[in-house]
Amino acid sequence: MSSAPITTEAPRVCLVAITKHGAAQAARLAADLPEADICTSAKFAAVFAEASNTVRAYDGALRDEIAPLFAGYDQIIFFVSLGAVVRLIAPHLRSKDEDPGIIVVDDAGQYVIPVLSGHVGGANEWSERVADLLGAAPVLTTASDVGRTIPVDILGRHLGWKVEAPKINITRVSAHVVNGEPIAFVQEAGSPDWWTRPTPVPDNIHRFARFDDVPLDRYAALLWVTHADVTAERWDALTERLVVYRPPLDNAA
What we know:
This protein is of the alpha/beta class.
């Protein structure tokens, strides 16, 4: 029931531009993201002549670059129209656990849109970062991000926490969270720095230091950060209401 292994490596980022205005916007962003690579039409390669970033200038069609981009990067930021990006990436989609984050910036640099793998893949977070750097507006549609509440399936990922729960539990509990129902958050282990949003923890999230202190009948769901064993009887008793998080042992509270 555990999640996929957590990676702490820096994400591999590529900026993709195929128009004059898009290349200009990408060059602006590249100055603030020196670790990002650039993929551009050879026609506009000169725009990046002063950039310290690695630049790939291709002569063919952008569609021929998509497979290598998917294989080589964790976040791909397109300065290309949204419709064109959707058509380009469609044949390469596999799953939200495998696909890179796909982000689109409009030609005027006004909007930053996470198109794919926004939540699990990190494109929402990167869209907010890119928007801040460009002075643009991020366009988010993921419920937990829009509502500034707990992202049940990836909570604590930046701390190395692993999720332990059946998928149906994660689905049901996520719905309870975004719908504003009363949620018990029990933290018996791990770092206290799990809340990373600039807004306060929502009022429907009630914190407890011990599982035994929770009046279970008052809460729609429970998020439990612990190193304790969870018995089959407890999972059964809290059918589809419990999600457990396992922090690294050296982060025990």
